[in-house]
TrEMBL record:
PANTHER family in the cross-refs: ADENYLATE CYCLASE-ASSOCIATED CAP C-TERMINAL DOMAIN-CONTAINING PROTEIN, UPF0225 PROTEIN SCO1677
Superkingdom of the source species: Bacteria
Stretches for region Disordered: 82-109
Biased composition (Basic and acidic residues): 82-94
SUPFAM superfamilies in the cross-refs: Sec-C motif
InterPro entries reported for this sequence: SEC_C_motif
Designated name of the protein: Preprotein translocase subunit SecA
Pfam families in the cross-refs: SEC-C (PF02810)
Length: 122
């Protein structure tokens, strides 16, 4: 897990929390990249793990222009709303008691039910 960094030249840098596969040779391979979606950089983040909740993208303005600052604030707000809606939608699809405590969570997070959607059911 780590951050993919992209640049919209003259406007902002965008950091997206993302998982990649590490090959036996130690290379980071992005299995979900799209054609023409070039990332500048992948920064591993060993201190952070995916816990079933999306993290909003982070932004850094590349200009002090008021227009650029406004766009960055808007992008941050939309990223936060998308992340919250995704997490809420995933949790709402899971019925309490639909899985055993140690079973994989039905929301698809990859975590055990007790560490994910079952955490609030205690």
């Amino acid at each position: 897990m780590g951050w993919i960094i992209r640049e919209l030249p003259g406007w902002y840098l965008e950091a997206e929390f993302h998982g990649v596969w590490v090959s036996p040779a130690g290379q980071h391979v992005d299995l979900t990249s799209r054609q023409g979606d070039a990332a500048l950089l992948f920064l591993p983040d060993p201190g952070r793990a995916y816990r079933g909740e999306g993290l909003p993208n982070r932004y850094l303005a590349l200009s002090p222009s008021p227009e650029v600052q406004a766009v960055v604030r808007m992008e941050e707000m939309h990223a936060r709303l998308r992340s919250e809606a995704e997490s809420l939608g995933r949790r709402e699809r899971v019925q309490p008691g639909s899985a055993g405590r140690n079973d994989p969570c039905p929301c698809g997070s990859g975590l055990k039910y007790k560490k994910c959607c079952g955490h609030a059911a205690r």
